[in-house]
Fold these 4 entries.
Entry 1:
Amino acid sequence: MDEQKIPLWRDDRFLKLVGQIVVLAVVIVILSIIAHNISVNFRRLGLNFGFGFLNNPASFGIGDHIIPYSPTDPFGRALLVGVTNTLRVIILGIVLATLVGIVAGIARLSDNWLVRQISTLYVELFRNTPLLLQLFLIYQAGFLRLPPPEQPLQLPFGTFLSNRGMDILWPAASARTLIALAVIIACLIAGLVLRQRQLKIMELQGGNAGQGYQKILIALTVVGVLALLFGLQWEMPSFEAGRVNGGLYVSSEYSALLFGLVLYTGAFIAEVVRAGIQSVSKGQWEASQALGLRSNLAMRLVVFPQALRVMIPPLTSEYANLAKNSSLAAGIAYADFFQVSFTINNQTGRVLEVVLLIMIFYLTINIIISLGMNWFNQRVQLKER
Amino acid sequence: MRKWLSLLLATLLTATIAVACASSNDTTAGGGGGSGTSTLDTVLSRGSLICGVNGQLPGFSFVDSKGEYSGLDADYCRAIAAALFDDPSKVEYRNLSAQERFTALAAGEIDVLIRNTTWTINRDTALGLEFEPTTFYDGQGMLVTKASGVKDVKGLSGKSICVQSGTTTEQNLTDRFRKLNIPFTPVVFDDEDALYAAFTQGRCQAATSDRSQLTARRKSLPSPDNYVVLDEVISKEPLGPAVRNNDSKWADAVKWIIYGTFQAEESDITQANLSQSESSTDPEVKRLLGKEGTLGTDMGLPNDFVARVIKHVGNYGEIYDRNIGKPFQLERGLNKLWTEGGLIYSPPFR
């Protein structure tokens, strides 16, 4: 009864609603102003918005490509080459940076004075200097200082190094390689599934339960390793007549970018790892020592799994940063998505379309990284009942 | 309660600011258009010219250790400033990469782009630029090491070639190799300094660009005698200033300032003999130097704009010799006056 007497301007629910409507209106107004401005400017310059230009022939070459590409292909294809080039930096970069980061992070807490100091030096050096500078140094003072392609440096396993890039041992593209690859993947999946089951049975029944699984697992490992060593048709690069044939060629630009990103991001991840480990209370260490676990076991079984929970959210940001930093590739002549896009922009004058594509691309990559890491995060969180 | 009121106020304020911004944006959007104010008026009221240049290219626009710009392109920036303000130092230079230049011009960050830019139909039409008279006729060439023994483009089959991104040379290179049907690997740099650094370190067996640029760059390499510019010319590269489309007042001003330097050379007016020329009785010279008629004021420039340009910067031949002829011993070739068999030609000042 009293409710009806509250005037409208003092009704909390009403005001909340008004507030939301006003905010919505402002957002709409701003967006329409932007849209209006863009359309006015487009008309002024006599341009039409559209992605039809992506079907025109690119007529520029791209040095680094893992999918077939020639200058007669359309701009869209050139963009796809850029996408694959960026993805192969990001994916390998994330894996390697994580490994470097974990090793360096654990090393920072090592009991060994020298290991600790080296790790600290690495982290501080790479974390506190600009990435672009590091990339220039790694590329110009590192990879370009290697001998010319006519006299490459020869390393074991048929590896050749020159300022053109690296030639490394790689399985040849053949049916045999494909079959072996399928076998290896099948062994890995089967092994993981069986291991899970074995652990479950061991947990439930204790004692020597799951012995049978042990034998199958060993057999799977042997098959997998054999397939890896002899099944894959490994191709050794060879040096003949002034050039290297066979194997896999990795350009200096790609290598320099990968190295730079891994070392830079690795330094940040090392700090995340160190913080994660230090966040686990000292009591956990002491308890595991009291149980008689050696320090590497204590780290692996007790401390690290707990630290992981703290580490994942900041790790997500580091991965996202790595993905975005890969766009610095243009500085060292690597044809990533960003560089290819800007070349297209320059040739066609389609600034808005190209910038939109760039935004969508990096946004998508980072959303995928976030979703993946969130899923992983949910899996390792404490299951509270 | 109070929270909601303040939120309301805040949103209202944002909305007003947004609307205010929008309306001011609208006027600037119209500014570049034909109906609104011309860039010429903007430059005059600002009191200085914002000139987009390369900054890394000896002979065209190059910043020395004192921060001073020199080169043919830089001199044309000065010529425009001299014509408008009688003071060649009223120029703000903006160093732009090949990638950035057109966006910077379209967005109004610079008034004029004088950055060894090749005039092509695509840039003139689809990119919304307006090209001014060509100030340097160039052609694309190849820089290789003497040791490599490469004599022509065919000798570069299967090699890596350093090239700058966002340039016509990048496309010409691809076209030429496609025509010859030989493979090559482009190594594409954004930055010219990085490009030549990678080339001298042997990452590429050749660097390609306009021949004037290669000649100038070769001079500044650690040991110039180890390098050679191939004789083969693989494209036409008419380089000149560019302005925004749909602003013919400004485009005309820049155009006739450039033609003024051409005509002055043709009429033998130099920095040295300017004062004698000003008292000349030749009606053509008198019109050119603004002593007779209203050629300058008709288009919104001071009537003596050519005289100012000659006084401060010199005629085309002087600009060429100072920046390219003397330092790099580059033949004038196509850049001679039409009277001497070149392509430098000004329509009549009448």
Entry 2:
Amino acid sequence: MRCERCGKELTNRIIKINGITYCENCARMMGYDRFLRDPSDIMGNPFAPLDQIASSLMQMSELDFGNSTLTCPKCGMTLREFENEGRVGCIECYNTFNDNIIREMFKQQGNSEYAGRLPAQSAETDVTTEDVPQIKKSAKTEKAVVETGVQEKAADKKDIGSETENPEEKEPVKGKLSLDQLMKADLGMLSDEELEAGIKVAADAEEYRLASRLRDELKGRKDGGSNG
Amino acid sequence: MAEWYLNEGKDNDVVLSTKACIVRNIKGYNFMPRLDDKDCQSLLDTVDGAIDKSVYSGGCAADFDKNTVLKLTRLQILGREANQMSNPDRKAFYYNDDASLSISVGSGEHLTVKAMAQGHDISVYKKAEKEALELEKKLDVAYSENYGFLTSNVRLAGTGLKILYTVALPAISKTEGGIAALTQRVGQYEWMIYPFAESGELADSGVYIIASVNTLGVTEDDVLRRGEMLISDVIKAERACREEIVSSKKEQTSDIYGRSFGTLRYAGLISRSEALQALGWIRLYHDYDDSGEIDLSWNTVDKLTMDILWEPGAPSRKNSQSMNLQRSRAQGIRNILKGDDRL
């Protein structure tokens, strides 16, 4: 699961406010500090001032219904309709509901930057279907099963994409992952040491987008983000 | 020309089909949910004018007869959902000779270009892209620098590209924790896996769809590379699980294989679920059968599986259990096993 504001993988505390999932860091930045308190702080205290509880409920109520009347001037779609259906009515809706659309995209993709091809221009790709070797009937199945990870539920996430012919890549040096592994890795699961080594690997391979993701992850941790 | 799914594809012991779908919308028209009937007709006419009629057949869905609808469903151009043919005057479908390439108009987005191939074959992307490029040159498509290709469903905005592998995983399904582990693995690639089933239908076929998720923050090349790495993992895992099951229970699996073939070959009535279960066992043991008594090609196993999976009206369990349907299904399977075609 990812934070719907910053897109980072949630590995620690998850805060859900009005149906939106935030990491602790973003929740604080959005001014939702009051939601970070343990509920028992208020509810468990018989002397908790009633107006404090009422104030929290009122603010939640305001957040719930705020902006729901926002309407696209071109097609007449309302924000509420968009949120219910997950679809917009016209191109102008992308301007009208910009923030909400970005949030919706984050929910699924963790990124809202377009990186694909331009209209009427072919994508640069040379990917072809490679033959997947058949398993011989007498093959040592156990090894193959472990390699592909299906019967190894607790497989180390860093092992993904380990089916390579290069033995050095199969057993990477501790703290240094291959480019393939870095591309598929959940960055939140990597150590600082692996991230630092990964930035160099990505830069050497001219994978600058990956290198910047690794750098941001590392920077986020150093800046005190706990869910990075 | 033979229909696309009758060809022999790579790795077709596991991968039933590879599909690439590219969605586009046209500037000047509201997206489908907000498009009035008059503008919709104008959209259909505009697209019709841009489509190369020397390559494509088809047209407005309102002009299709019942047999055409059944045929297009079997060819996987139309989905099996009942609502696929709702408002037929607002939709159009075009398809090439072997139906491996199709263009849908008005199904969710203005345009959906879909290329399909039997087995494991990522060249479908280039095929779909070629057609999408042609349309992008002829039509003014909705595009922004920030979001890429704009879509009504905002989760498709960006590349508007989906790659889907339909895979038969009888052995992983029968391995304890197999699907859960696979789901985790697929998620690590930021792809998704879900069973081949409509709502109200049992997900007991052992057939799954593995689909790309990201349309933003990735290039088309990223999606294809990731997909190929993932599907290669899945194929290896399924084969390894088959080997594991057969080597540990050779006699039992051989027995079930024979019984399953007998059921398919001689049953007078057969439910969808029973037929798919039998095909799952046949798939699992097929490469290990050294008796020489059952002559069954992978192509036939795949054709049977796809025929049953894409039975029109299959999502309605009540219908699929009716005697007539069970009888015609059993007859169709017997015909295919005898070398005839049910269509």
Entry 3:
Amino acid sequence: MCGIVGIIHKNAGKDVNIGEQMTSMLQALKHRGPDSTGYAMYGEDNGNQILRFKVAEAADLEGSYDIHATIKERLETVNSRLTELGVKVVNKQSPTEYAHRYEVEFSGDMKKVADFVEDVEGVEILSIGNSLELIKDLGDASVVSHQYGLNDFSGTHGIGHTRMATESDVDIRSAHPYWAYPFSDVAVVHNGQLTNYWTNRRALERSGHRFSSDCDSELIAVYLADRMSQGDDLETAMKGSIDYLDGVFTYLVATKDQLGMAKDVMAAKPMVVYEGEDMIALASEEVAIRTLFDHRIETFDPYHGEVKVWQN
Amino acid sequence: MAELRKETSQEMGLHEEQLKGRTQKKFFSIDESENLTYFHSFDVDTSKSATIDALDMTPREINREIRELMEKGIGDITVDNPMSRHGVGVGILNRLNLTFSDSLGYFGCGLIDGPNVHIKGRVGWSCAENMMAGTVVIDKNAGSTFGAAIRGGDLVCKGSVGARTGIDQKGGTIIVGGKTGAFSGFMMQRGRMIVLGDAGMNLGDSMYDGTIYVGGEVEELGVDCVQGDMTELDVRYLTEKLALYGMKSPRGVEKMQKHVSGKMLWNYANLEPNEKKLIL
């Protein structure tokens, strides 16, 4: 059934520990999906691009004798390709053997970078952005946050997901959030099932979009990317998705300075919203939002076919 | 149980053999005393009070604590800090004054038969599902499938509720102070629903009995749901019922719209009362 959360702080600068807040909310929703946990969080923009990518699946480490050599080889190929394109890596972090975070200086076409890097077998770009950091891995929120050191992450907003796999495999590739390739700083999490996934996927692929997984939720990210590439703002694109997507869904989308929510016309998937003066928090269940407060709060359910967008 | 006409019930495809009440005889024999009371139903004294601080308790621990207090005869229980937990206050089968000082999560107060519950906050999905009797009053908003399949009692939300309110409602009364979402009253079979605000699309879709009153705008009626005529009896009923909970229709009950089934379930109108019970 999956659980999704979102949080956005208004007028709070970039110094809020949203990593800890997101972990707290996601851990409260562990019962909705123990397979994997993902974060898309928005931190300080220092002018550089943040490149999050993986060179293997977590499960690959146990499935092959020469995987360590393969990972090393893939990483070297990625590095050489970045150099070839003139991308200057100013900071490298490797939370795991297979997941990497590069801070890069580059003013050229990041889509070209993404395509060239993803051309390396087994390599997948998780996100590119000035402030977006997209992290996802197997396990619950406490495992992933500890593994990637997320409990100290400062920023303004974020979205997250706990996954119960129904439509595709239990792996990082199928975990949420999804980056809305090729748009910097756009990410999506989804709870539900889309029944016109393959039809719409084929149409989007024919128009040049790329899908990195077989997970139906990725369609939302690609659709929004397609609409925004044609000039729609986020809210307009999201409103269009209500008719475009068939099935049951509640999804959250985040950009550099916005957080949006959309719900299908059947209102078949839950969402609870807390709207305070300084903070908006959303979750599949109120129990997740309550972990942020030690006092009573006012919450509500959005309605069928409703789209809401908040600005930080 | 009255003997059913073989041909009617069998033609409906409900069963293959003629029903003669054997099930009822087996499970509700007057000679077997345990069949006359509910399992885990207690005699309580509402003048005896107790408070539970649920801050660090699991839902199971909260429910067990409520039961143990009822076993001791305590009839007025307050639960502090429920922290929006799921499945709390369920399966209470006797009179009890139960107060939650804050919000509940999903499936709160489900499967109850008799208690008077006051929730001083919000409730998540499926509040009071399958409620048989008693009252549940929520001060704030409620999630979807509010009062699913209730058979009796009064379920009151003073705020707004989500989608599919009263889905499969089989009796009792659901009152909503604000608006209600899509597919409210879906497959409603009996009872009353009173919505003082607006109602979302497909109101009363596939309903085949029961009444839905709406004080605001109806986005769209569902299949088989039609507008009925408000009578003096409706106005009197609504006035008195709402007064019980200190509620009023913003435009006056006389201006509320009444909605009923426009088309009975196949052969439903021709059924004997006992046969209807079999369906419901």
Entry 4:
Amino acid sequence: MGDKDEDAIRGTSVEATQIETDLSDETQDFRLLNHLSFLTDSNSATLPKRGEKDFEPNPTEYQADILSASRQAMHNALAHPRLHNANNKVIGYFAPDGPVPPPGVNIEDPAKFGGKGVGVNVHLESCVYVPNPKGQYFKNMGQSDRWNRVWLLPEEALFLIERGSLDIRWPIEMTSSLDDEGSEELSIPMSLQAAYASFIGHAGLTLERYTVFTGLKRLGYALARAPGWDDSARAEGNTLKDQNQGGAVRHPLKRGPGLAGILEQIFSWASDPFCTRSTAAGPVVGCGMHRSYNDIYRKLAMIPWYDPSLAIERDPLDTTPPFRVVFHAYRPSTPIKKSALPPPDFRIAVINTRETESIPTLAQLGALMETTPLDPPHGEKMKRMVYMRLRHGYRNVILAVVDQGIASYLRISDAAFGKEKLYETQSASMGSKKNGNHRGKR
Amino acid sequence: MAEATSKAQSSPEADPARVKARPARAPRPPRPNYRHIHRFPLPVNAHPVPPVIPHNPLSIISAALSYLSFLISRPSQEVHSAYFDPATSSIHVTDVKAIRALWEMGFFGKGNLSRSEPSWLEREKKRRGLLGGNTSEEVTRKRRSERRELKLERARSERLLIEERLKREATARELGSLSVPPDDSTDPTATTIEKFSVKKAMEAKYRARIAQNGGSVPSADESASTQSKFVRFSSVVEQKEVTSTSTVPLQDSSFADGNEIDVEDILENQEHLQLSNEEAFFLVYGLGVLRVFDREQNAVIPTSTLLPLLRRHSYFPSHPESSTLSPDDPFMLSYVVYHHFRSLGWVVRSGVKFGTDYLLYNRGPVFSHAEFAVIIVPSYNDSYWSETEERRDYVTSKQSRSWWWLHCVNRVQAQVKKSLVICYVEVPPPTGSSEDTGALLAQYQVREFLLRRWIPNRTRD
């Protein structure tokens, strides 16, 4: 009933925090920073609790004190000295022309080694190399070449310089004359501003993509570029665009061909000899009598629906940018080998709302969905719960919708309601009590 | 079916006696047996054949007998009547029996004076003190006013807290000590102890009521003390409460004990059931259990003219009869989706309260909350729609929805614990006038996507 739903609204005003706790949505209580022990002691591992919010200003000194304490805490945290240990210093060099062999080395046959003769694994759009890599960051970032230098993609380099873990130098050719036998100490460090200017816009890295990259990276995810990174790339050969859409659609009205179809007709006549069923003028279920509600529902099925499990997988480039997977994301717990990446945990497409103002059309979203592998619901829990099955879907993708620097993520899945004949479970559970009011838990 | 309706009809009359026998105010009236009332998922009769067990010849005979008896005398299917009102583009059912049948079997329509189930008559009787028990509207109203009271109380306690603190601070200043009394300002959790939680109070109240088993004492002094002293919330609702309760004693109590028939005569049911156009067409075309009358000519509108009529009326103002029907008119899109989900066994109801097109209930709204909320987006993949510049522009304007809108809808659904479903409807190119509704519907296609916020914080492992 209507009021039940409204109960849910009101009910959740208190519980909402439990369903959708998104810490980034809340105002920070900076006093908590005082309780954070990482400044002094790295052993304790308890998270501080959030305090109660005051919604209105009141004239008490108490409130004013809380406010000033909070401000002070923030200043303390900001004023805490952040030191870069000289031992951990990592220096990288900007290579605006992409991966090149070290100066003084000549490669006779560049094609033999791939990547302009640097190494097979090195990404062609890498633009920073680190001759002496150390530290945890290179575990899932960058690719090393034949001379043991690690090449970083622009987003990786920008991420590292932004968090203070990398010192990037301008190439020596750009700052001093070539004949100068200048050692590497003479090179000029790159400022953060210069890094942004140099790397954003370099080889397809938009600010939106970088926002998504750095946001997920900070949460501990590992990210890799997906094959659909280049917006200008198009699928070669014949595109599936037109014929595929129809291939996976189920037409409930069409009868099976040949003998099976005839038998089916005879059988349906036998079960209802006075069949007045007519889909042309109605009633669809006929005026005769019905043996069961399941029969009635089966007769009612006449709208063609899309069955995602029948769709053929698409070329990732056979899509319309920006509805294209550009990042593969891996959970922090997923073991990663840089040279042979496992199948990703999440596939992410990045959308700039100021450029793409409308939500995708079916053609765009359908194409994007078909580039992802089939991921049907499985497991014991899914088998039992219809809602969970429907929510999980058969394919899924994540849209990172970036609106002027704010990323909101949407998980979209191909639900296939048509595959779940709800009436069958209903008629089966009519007698059992426990099926009544359960709700799928999140 | 007739049996079911008569049972449901008789149940409210049986109510007063049952409730009277109990102590004055029972904590919670028993819920009606929804499992029994709504045991039929659709307003169509189904007659199961006795099971045939091969090694038991008797079972074969009984099955054959039932089969034969159906051949000889077929059970009749009741067909309800409704009429179409062109002024409001809506379809009304006024027959009480039909209203009950359509509501109880499949949750079709909405009472025009009620929130969803047509319950105006019952509410009116209760208001006049003729019936015990509570309708859902009353329960909600009561709970709302209780909640409001508690919020007022919270506001009061907060205000007291602030005043007390101000006083303490003032005395502290007078004493000359600069520091505020035994202070806990550095510990943000300290304040939570004193804060007033409406939820907790609500639970406490509920528990107390169960323990007391129906003493009407507690509400009196509480409401007096909180009487709009603090202007945090308007006191309008409380006044309303007063007027509604004050009408009860006006009614002669002996009158209630008098015969019901008189009351029925005095109280004319002024409520009718309003069917959405999709529901009506589904009942007519899909199930064949409804006849829609033209109000002026008093003639049944045949299915073949009902569809164009409803399609023209899906615009405002409705399109004239001479206009050509476009394949993407709002009625076709919403009907295709409605029929699709109905045929899978969902109870489909309007989602206008939550800013969506439909809500999908499993079995029905009295059993559980809707789990899914559906929004409909048309899709124009057919090459016809991209042939000319004009058509391309038209299609773009029809398909475009802003991201902000999507986020809004999605956040609302998350707040009410529903999952958002985007249902794309593939629109066929326009065809000539077709009498075959089934063929027309088969040209459309639906594809559902489930949309959920992804919070990277929570999927890390």
